[in-house]
Amino acid sequence: xxxxxxxxxxxxxxxxxxxxxxxxxxxxxxxxxxxxxxxxxxxxxxxxxxxxxxxxxxxxxxxxxxxxxxxxxxxxxxxxxxxxxxxxxxxxxxxxxxxxxxxxxxxxxxxxxxxxxxxxxxxxxxxxxxxxxxxxxxxxxxxxxxxxxxxxxxxxxxxxxxxxxxxxxxxxxxxxxxxxxxxxxxxxxxxxxxxxxxxxxxxxxxxxxxxxxxxxxxxxxxxxxxxxxxxxxxxxxxxxxxxxxxxxxxxxxxxxxxxxxxxxxxxxxxxxxxxxxxxxxxxxxxxxxxxxxxxxxxxxxxxxxxxxxxxxxxxxxxxxxxxxxxxxxxxxxxxxxxxxxxxxxxxxxxxxxxxxxxxxxxxxxxxxxxxxxxxx
Length: 376
Known about the structure:
Strand content: over 45%
Strand order of the largest sheet: 3-6-7-8-9-10-11-12-13-14
Shape: elongated
Distance between the termini: 55 Å
Number of domains: 2
Oligomer: single chain
CATH architecture of the largest domain: Beta Barrel
Structural class: mainly beta
């Protein structure tokens, strides 16, 4: 009996020492210095062969210093600041203009250059597995212009010219086509982690999943213009030189549902994946103008309507938590919008109509992201 009690006591001491050593040597996902509470509860002494219980070791998981950053149990507020580079792409392709020398302007050539913008996010960890955040972002002047020149041999396939506008884009010497897009958005999101607790060191399930619900506002503001110059040089009076200008303003208010995945690759380093779907109302404003530079106006039309739009957003991000309160991240994102009024799509080759109302268009915005995080 005495030998059995001594054996149990030695075993409890060894196990307690092993836990303490493991706690000191286990690499931490975050440099957060906390102390885990470890309690060794020796088992009751029993007769040999009666199935004596081994010591019970209780580790308080909420105090472990290996908890990943995205687990909300240990944090308060966080702030993200990102630089975003976006490019506007359109899937529709058509020929807008040709010249006698063989030059062309196609709508696909008007995809924008890459422009830089910014995004700011502030969030709050509201309890186990719960996050609330608000973000705002914008990118301006995503534009592209194309020109065609030739002595009285540049044409667009237009017809039914208004009176005194017979020379618009027909046998002219110069055409300049410009397409410009500004975008901005605001999102309010509640994020719920489906498996947000760690019960072992390291975590037994390094892949985390979360759902998102919320609202978003997206504004897409576009301008499209065609400058038609009849002679080799602009006319001093503006005679036979024309501007066809369209503009659209899309205000999309939509519900949002998303899925987020976070994977611990190495201590302090994780990869996040994002997929969001939004659907809601699009309040659209359009303007169409055809004028001669003498001041003569063929038509000027404004339209307002409400339609339905869909948004799919996806992205992948790598985040390095190099300090308890600081992290950096880099990745790539894409936003696909269906059901919006593009400014280029309001142009009508039939000049008898003051433009056309077309909201059945799609738009892709995509580009890299580079940012930092502050946690407090």
